[in-house]
Amino acid sequence: MSAHSTVVVGGGIAGLYTALRLAKQGDRVTVVDAEPSVGGLTRPWEIGGITWDRFYHVVLGSDYETRNLLAEIGLADRLQFKAVKTNFYHEGRLYPFSSMLDLFTFPELSILGKLRLAATVLHARYGGNDAAYEWEGVLEYLTRWSGAGTVDRIWRPLLRAKLGDHHAMASAAFIRATIKRLQGARRGGFREERYGYVSGGYAAVLTALERHLRGLGVEFVLGHRVKQVFLNDDRVIVALGGAELTADRAVLTLASPLCVAICPQLTPKEQRVLTQDRYFGVACTSLLVNRRLGNAYVTNVADGGFPFTGIINMSALVDRAELGGYDLVYLPKYAPADEKAFMQSDEVLIARSIESLRRVFPAFSSSDVVAAKVARASHVFPFPRIGRAASLPPAMTSLRRIAVVNSARLRYATLNVSDTIGVVDEALDELEQNPVWRSRHEARGRAFA
Ligand SMILES: Cc1cc2nc3c(=O)[nH]c(=O)nc-3n(C[C@H](O)[C@H](O)[C@H](O)COP(=O)(O)OP(=O)(O)OC[C@H]3O[C@@H](n4cnc5c(N)ncnc54)[C@H](O)[C@@H]3O)c2cc1C
């Protein structure tokens, strides 16, 4: 076994999974995170006496990497699946949108429009090679398959809800990946949707994962923001502002612009490539509500005036006993962190969330709200522009002992835990093929043998 020392910067899923893989191959791993606890976007918080994820998370049947990880840390039997519904809010009305029957009774499209919509979903899921659609604009693709009327009525409002005014610059690969992911919850075509969650939420997952990692010898430095990572005489120095860690190598798992901000020795070209994509963040209101807000897990919103991306009711999926008997509802708004939609105060977002919920569920009122909070993350995903996936940088940087392994490496997939684990696996495999990345590892292995 080698005694290679590696610092993993970032203790989100990408960092924790990197630590797991490296520790299992014998590295001495230290995970550093700016927050006082691990988990990044999956970190839980407390709302109205309930501990649950600050951003909603589900596991799909097709999330094999997540399911393997849960099995490895002993949580496979806490994963529960349930059939759930999807709603569609369109021009002031709420429609069920879970089954083929729902599609065919949807009054806003002609029979031909419905058939073309179904064909679009099937083509996105099964047709063609994803790489080819990387170079096609999302609206061109959707117009070709669904027709201009359905694009105007359905797709464009949905795209605007997720990507704002920039949506037309997205690639067709983005919508195909989104459709594929949603279809991953279905048992085929438009049949029953099933979503899964781990009893106890991501709090349970992170507790078990951290315990497992500590058991493998992984160390954690939490509540310390990394200020700089640089090479000094072939050693990697991780500066924490006051303290320093020294290691053989470092893996940076932060969003690409954040990696550039802490790694000044990257070449100008690397800096340009890693900062070329504008990141979207999310401001997400959580409302704990003393009223049943229907049985749909997701309400997709295709209504120009609606200020949120959608409505997610966690209580449609999770046993209400785990949520204090309440409905836990999330209203996310994705936007670049320097845009107004992201920068509104918590008070404004909460007031708009309550007003928006009342539009969709007229019986709901502010007196039903037991607790309300807003979670924000400034760097969630890079804008899925045309051709982005074709110009991803290698994981290994020019510094050779410092690698960037983050979720921006996702190609043809929307952001999710399972595919994040998948890209970490891919990137670590790529690094292990590289003799320079391995060289120290081997030398150390000999030295300690
Ligand atoms: C609203 C929302 C809903 C989602 N729903 C789902 C879902 O239903 N199912 C699913 O599978 N996935 C879902 N996801 C995606 C999932 O959360 C992500 O795929 C995953 O958490 C990404 O992990 P990461 O490690 O790449 O990034 P992050 O979680 O962002 O981790 C980055 C870490 O780096 C740390 N950091 C940043 N800067 C520094 C620094 N300078 N020094 C030290 N540490 C630093 C941060 O504190 C953070 O812990 C959702 C995400 C969001 C936002």
Care to describe what's here?
The protein is of the alpha/beta class and 449 residues long. It has three domains: 5-34 and 223-277 and 385-448, FAD/NAD(P)-binding domain; 49-62 and 194-200 and 279-382, Protoporphyrinogen oxidase, mitochondrial, domain 2 (Polyamine Oxidase, Chain A, domain 2, Alpha-Beta Complex); 99-188, no CATH class. Helix content is 36%, strand content 25%. It has 15 helices and 19 strands. The strands form four sheets. Strands 5, 6, 7, 8, 14, 15, 16, 17 and 18 form a nine-stranded mixed sheet that branches. Strand 6 and strand 7 (93-96) form a beta hairpin. Helix 1 packs across helix 14 (417-432) and helix 10 (256-262) runs antiparallel to helix 11 (268-275). The termini are close together. Residues 441-449 have low confidence and may be disordered.
Distance between the termini: 8 Å
CATH superfamily of the largest domain: FAD/NAD(P)-binding domain
CATH topology of the largest domain: FAD/NAD(P)-binding domain
User: Biggest β-sheet, characterized?
Assistant: 9 strands, mixed
Query: Any idea what the shape is?
Result: globular
Radius of gyration equals 22 Å
Helix-strand makeup class: alpha/beta
List the domain count as a whole number.
Answer: 3
CATH architecture of the largest domain: 3-Layer(bba) Sandwich
The total count of helices amounts to: 15
Give the percentage of residues in beta strands: 25-35%
User: Which ions and ligands are bound to the chains?
Assistant: flavin-adenine dinucleotide
The count of DSSP E runs of length 2 or more, i.e. the number of strands, is 19
Q: Let me know the average pLDDT.
A: 92
Name the CATH class of the largest domain: Alpha Beta
Low-confidence stretches: 441-449
The helix content, as a percent range, equals: 25-40%
